[in-house]
Structures are given as structure tokens and as C-alpha cells.
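Re: folding output
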Amino acid sequence: MPLYELKVEGQKKENRLAKAVETHSKLLVTISVIVIIVSAALTAQILLATKRYQQLFSKLEISTAPQMLVQNEKDYMGTKLYPDFLYRLARLYYENANYDKTKESCLMFLKEFAEHPLKQSVNEILNLVNQDLAFLEQKKDVYVQHFKLTSHPWIQTVKTEDTFTPHPGANPRLKFALEKDSFEIELFDLETPATTRLVIELLTQKEIEKSSAFELSDDFTILSVKSEKEVQFEPEKTYRTLTDNMVVLEVKDGKVLANKFYLVKNSKNFKLQGYQIIGEIPNGINVYREIKSDSKLNSITKL
């Protein structure tokens, strides 16, 4: 083949190669742009979903009444947080002694999410409801002494030997007298009866106040007591949520330690990892919040 024909043929091959490279380059650029657009869209979707999840989770955390959750139920349906929603709703209904709604929420959870990790906790709430209802059925004929106001006020005295009515003041209280003022701790006897009994036995020992001392923190005040023997016992379950002015004991290695009583000032910043809620401070809140490290405890009295 003559030389000029070889040159022409070589030029044609180069042109074809250049066109192929150009075509593939355009294709690669197009694919790259599509990948970037899809990646950006997926990233935006993930960020929006994460933000939405955080918003819904925060609503669960701050809800303190069942009505607050019920009005937002549609936001949770079909999401990963719906099991948490039903569990939280059941807890709030139980805390408000609405047993019918509690059972309804628990049974709906167990029907829809039978394999969920919260199943055991839901079953525990359901068992508590059944126990409470059985107890109320047994005690339905028990009355308490009460005042009845008619056209002429009179006092009706009735059976009192086995009283059960969770009216204000039904739980036992301890009065802590300081040099000038005092405050009271109401113990959750209906929920943690064994803890209540042991705490009362400990704090009503003779001259126990002489071995007590206060330790201060921005978020809590500690009442330390020294007993002849170390007091430890098994924790009891309570479904109360920690709030300001509650009293807790530390739980360590599966045991409740009854040597330091934490009077919680700021529950949001309370960092104790394990604790047992035992009661709350209904009277003298300002008194205990103004306690100083050198404040003296004069006496502890069971009311």
C-alpha cells in the first residue's frame, strides 16, 4: 500500500478514536452529574428524616400527660418511633391511674410489636395494672374516715382498720427539723413498700440525726447518715419519672445504698447512673433548697 494511503488510513483511525473518547467522556460526565444529584437528594432526605426523628423523640421525652401524646399520634404512626409512642402512652396512662386506657395501649403494643425489645417493659406495666385492679376489687368495701358537708356539717366515722385510699397524705411522711425551719419527705409506700419500711427504720433510730451531715451540689443536696450497720437492700420497681424535689437513693452493683439520700434540685442535670426513687418533698421545698453544709439536723420524726 502506498505511503500516502497509509497516512490517510491512520488519520481516519485517529478521528474515530477521538470521537469515541469524546462520546465516552460526555457519558462519564453525564453519569457523574446524575450521581452527584442523586447523592445530594439522598443526603437531604436523610438529614430531613433525622431532624424529624429528633423532633418526634423530643416530644415523647417532654410529654407529661396522655392528652399531649394522643393529639400527635398521627405523627408517629408508621414510623420507627410508634412502639416507643405506645409504651410512653401506656406509662402516662398508668401514672394517671387510667387503667382501661393503659390496658388498651399495652394490648395494642403487644399485638403490633410482639418482638420489640420494649415488650418486657409493656408486660410489666400490664401486670401492674392487673395487680392494682385485683387489689381495688378486694378493698372495694373498705372506707376511710371522711367529712361530709350537708345543710348541717357532721362527721361520719366508719370502718378504718384496713384503710386504702390513695388520697393526699396517704403515704407516710418524715419531718426533718433544722435549727429554725423544717421540711418533709413523703415516701412512695404504695409503690415501694419494702424500701419505705427500711428507710423509716433507719431514719427513726435513736439519735440518728447526730450522725447526719449535709453535702451540697448545684443540682442536689445529700443527707448522709451513719448507722451501726451498713444498710443495703434489693431495689423495687417504680415507673415514676424523676422530677425536681424528688428523693432518691443510689443503686450500685444491684443493691440500694441507704447511707446517702439525694434531694434532687435540678432533675435535668442529675447524673447519678443508678438510683431508686423513694419519695418527694411536698412541704418545705424552699427550706431544703437553702440548706448549707454546716446546717444542723435537730430531729427526724415520722408523721
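--- second protein (sequence, then structure) ---
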Amino acid sequence: MKFKVVSGSLVIVAFLVLGGALGADKYISSKVASRVQEKLPRASDVHVSIPISNVASDITSNSIKSARVKIGHYMISGNSLTPSLSIVAKGITKSQPTIIDDLSVVATIPLATIENLSGFGKAQIVGDALRVTSGLPGGGQAILLPKFSNNQFYFQLLSVSAWGKQVPAALLPASIQADLKARSLRNLSFPKGLNETSISLSANGLSIHLRGTKFPLDNLF
């Protein structure tokens, strides 16, 4: 009987602790989401998650271990790009100014937007490049490589083909390369302190990976 009473008490305590963690998790997440929405009014479909296993230490310590923020659409001022953002922050201090020990941001531009920027319509992903219809006779195609440099996104022509023959871009007039870059060029301004680590292309679109350390939270907004 004593064993049953003790076991039952443990179950009740565990239930209360877990329930409190779940409630705290939702409370902290909603507060973070509200601040993100306030600071980023052009953001929509904002979701924040806090690991339940970290809630106890997040409440009692001077920092939050980690938080993940997902933004479905973010309107960038000055152009038509609406990337989604995936943000992972680790080691978030509670003191002011708030500093994030390690911050990772992935900005993904939808594939449909990438296709429109290329100016060639529907595209097919080939490795880290796009294969598009070039408009040349003989089933002409072009291979375009998405580039990101100095906060600018644009396309670089790698080659064109017609009647089964491939011609490297280096053998084409330089004006063709310049025209493609001018038509596809878009400025992307990222917060100071975030550095590009890589770019990748997938069915979801073009993802630009950024990272910063000892990053001031206010810089993110």
C-alpha cells in the first residue's frame, strides 16, 4: 500500500512539473513571437519554439539555452523578394543589451521567385545550378548559377546549348553575362555581424546560410 501511495505521489508530481513546463514553454514562446512580430512588422506566419527540456534552467538561470524562430514570409524593403527565415539562437542572455552567443539564420528565397528572376520561366535544378530554356533554336538551354556576394543576389551564366552542342559562357559576348546579371540583380541587406557561410539550392528555393557569434539581439531587428 505504501509503495502504491508513493508511486501515485510521484506520478502527480511528475504530471504537475511536466504541465508547468508545457505552460512555461508556451508562455515564453508566445512572448518571443510577439516581440519578433513587433520588431519585424513585415514578417508573417511567425512560429517560436523553446525545448521543453530547457524550460526549468531557462527560468532559473541568467540566460535562455536556445530558441528557434520560423518566419514563413518576410517582405524585404525595396524589392519583391519574400524569403522565409529560419533562426536558431543559442545562449541568449537575459540582461540588457541581450547578447546571443551563437546565431544561425537561413534565408530561403522560393524557387518560383528564383525562376522569375532568371527571366527564362520554368527551371530545373541541376546540382547547384538551374537549367532553363534559353529561347535558342534546336531545343536551346542555358545553365545558370545563383550567386550571392556583397549582399547582392544575381545569376551567372555558365553555358548555353543548342542542337546538342554546349558552349561555355566564356566564349560568348560579355554583354550577355552583364545583361543577365543586371536583370536578375537584387540587393539583400543582412544585419551587421551576420556573415554568409554558404548558399544551397533545393526544391524549396535558394537558401543563404548566415552565422554570427556574440551577436546583439537588437541588431537582428
